[in-house]
Each structure stands twice: as structure tokens, then as C-alpha cells.
Specification:
SH3 type barrels; about 80 residues; iron; alpha+beta; Fe-transptr_FeoA-like; 2 helices; Ferrous iron transport protein A; six-stranded antiparallel sheet
């Protein structure tokens, strides 16, 4: 199954991080909050320009532009 950006994952779905794209600062920021290869991400809600996810027991709100850097596969 091909990787899908986190920004396109529907609310209620759980996926795994396959890789993080972008510059060093973007990769470091996402890595620091738990978006590393193999981590499970649950999409709580996705509306407009924002997406709310839970990862490693924490809940985060991400702008869809940031979420496009997180590539995911089915969990």
C-alpha cells in the first residue's frame, strides 16, 4: 500500500508513520513530538486547515501544511 500524507487521513483512522519529509528544522520538530518511523498516529478530527491527532499518548493540533510532511501507511 502506498504512503499517504497525514493531512489526507480521515478522522477515526489509525496509521503508522513511514517517514517524515522536509527540511532539517521540520524533521527535527516533528521528531521531537513523536513523529518517528513506526509510531502509531490516531486522527481525532480533520477539518479545514487543521488536524488533531494523538501520538504516544499526547494530543496535538497540526496545520495541514505541516501534516503533509508526515507520510503514513495503514496500521
Amino acid at each position: 500500500m502506498p504512503a499517504l500524507p497525514l493531512s489526507l487521513v480521515k478522522a477515526g483512522e489509525t496509521v503508522k508513520v513511514s517517514r517524515v519529509k522536509g527540511g532539517d528544522d521540520m524533521k527535527r520538530h516533528l521528531n521531537d513530538i513523536g513523529f518517528v518511523e513506526g509510531s502509531e498516529v490516531h486522527v481525532v478530527s480533520s477539518s479545514g486547515a487543521n488536524i488533531i491527532v494523538t501520538i504516544l499518548g499526547a494530543r496535538f493540533g497540526l496545520d495541514t501544511k505541516v501534516a503533509q510532511h508526515v507520510m503514513t501507511v495503514a496500521a
